């Protein structure tokens, strides 16, 4: 989807530059897009077209997405007569910048549609895996696992969206760790990113115990608030890494970002750990 330079400039996070093939850094973003819709009742509005511009403006090599619609019959009918209507394809394919590969798997099936996690990648993707980590029948949750060939190296990615209850999140972290031990080689580079719903900041320790460090600023700060988007206070969105170090971490802000989803994106520049 094409975009105007002015709008791209208004959306671009400070210091954003186009990724280059020769760059030693891997630019990674995680973003809960709230199914591409904001508001309720007559105030409900379609944001998927703005989100397309936002994802493009991130200029990320890898975009980890949560709450991505594959289809939704009722909302497709509701917005079909708007100037920018409901996309004909799934939201993951619609949001992918030109030339990016897409992986999507469904987490939740509802009466009118389904939604799940997605990965958008400017690097080639391997076989896509999906692991159900639902803790109870009222919350359908899953992990999307995709190997990525990054500059001749195999990098494993996991897109996560954990539950609303702390006890359930602890069990989901354990299932995530068990899945990684089974499906990801111990020496492989690994990025686990998504919406961890960790309101109490209590998941870093169990993740770190299994070799996954939370991406942080060079000064050690890692708690960059991403929720709620209009007045961010909680750092629910996370990037955990293995075999990599974080060079920079930022959260794009401003009115355009605040309106598109209830979350803000989290953006990290990663590099290989020093030998």
What would you note in describing this structure?
The chain is of the alpha+beta class and 275 residues long. It has a single domain (25-272), classed as Endonuclease/exonuclease/phosphatase (Deoxyribonuclease I, Chain A), CATH 3.60.10.10. Helices cover 21% and strands 33% of the residues. It contains 7 helices and 14 strands. Strands 5-6-4-1-14-13 form a 6-stranded mixed sheet. The protein has a 6-stranded mixed sheet with strand order 7-8-9-10-12-11. Strands 2-3 form a two-stranded antiparallel sheet. Strand 8 and strand 9 (153-161) form a beta hairpin. The chain is globular. 43% of the residues are buried. Mean pLDDT is 88; it is low at 1-10 and 12-20.
Q: What is the number of helices?
A: 7
Describe the oligomeric state of these chains in a short phrase: single chain
Number of domains: 1
Report helical residue fraction.
10-25%
Query: Radius of gyration from the CA trace?
Result: 18 Å
CATH architecture: 4-Layer Sandwich
pLDDT < 50 stretches: 1-10, 12-20
Question: In what range is the share of β-strand residues?
Answer: 25-35%
Average pLDDT metric: 88
CATH superfamily: Endonuclease/exonuclease/phosphatase
The profile of the biggest β sheet is: 6 strands, mixed
| Content-based structural category | alpha+beta
